[in-house]
Amino acid sequence: MRIESRIGHIYATPERVYSLISDFSRIDTTMLPTNDKITDVQTTADSCTFTIANAGRVGMRIVERQEPKLLKMENSEGPLQFKMWIQLVPYNTTESKVRVTFDADVNPLMSVMVKKPLTEFVESLVSKLEQIR
Q1: CATH code of the domain made up of 2-129
Q2: Which of 48, 49, 40, 87 is nearest to 68 (CA)?
Q3: 3-state secondary structure string, 74-120?
Q4: What's the first-to-final CA gap in the chain, in angstroms?
Q5: The dihedral sign for the CA sequence 16, 8, 25, 23
Q6: Domain-by-domain residue ranges, the chain?
Q7: What residues contact residue 108 under an 8 Å CB cut-off, 6+ apart?
Q8: CA–CA separation, 79 vs 15, rounded Å?
Q9: In the chain, pLDDT over 90 holds for what percent of residues?
Q10: Quick check: 30 pLDDT over 90?
Q11: pTM over the 0.85 mark
Q12: How many Cβ atoms from other residues are within 10 Å of residue 131's Cβ?
């Protein structure tokens, strides 16, 4: 199951955005969806783990960096096998466009259950990225 976000608009250069998102130790809970369902966030430069209420522990690690245009991640912990990437392209000299793609290995029955929450997650991530200045 592949979910592609809308194309977001960021009022910062791809270099600025990339410098913030390419090191997970710089990402705090402000980059995660704002709700009380996510707890116990732990980060290093290359990995991030957190607990989601009613879903368990989830972890991801950075597997590829192409500065300043691409960041690829995959799961490192949890029940869902996935890959996610963030693409950045310059819009003009001071702004960027962003797209998040989430690709999960799920069976068709589970796909029906997880598509909406994963789509909401991807869209909320784009919205959070759009707040970078």
Answers
A1: 3.30.530.20
A2: 87
A3: EEEECCCCEEEEEEEEECCCCCEEEEEEEEECCCHHHHHHHHHHHHH
A4: 32
A5: negative
A6: 2-129
A7: none
A8: 33
A9: 63
A10: no
A11: yes
A12: 11
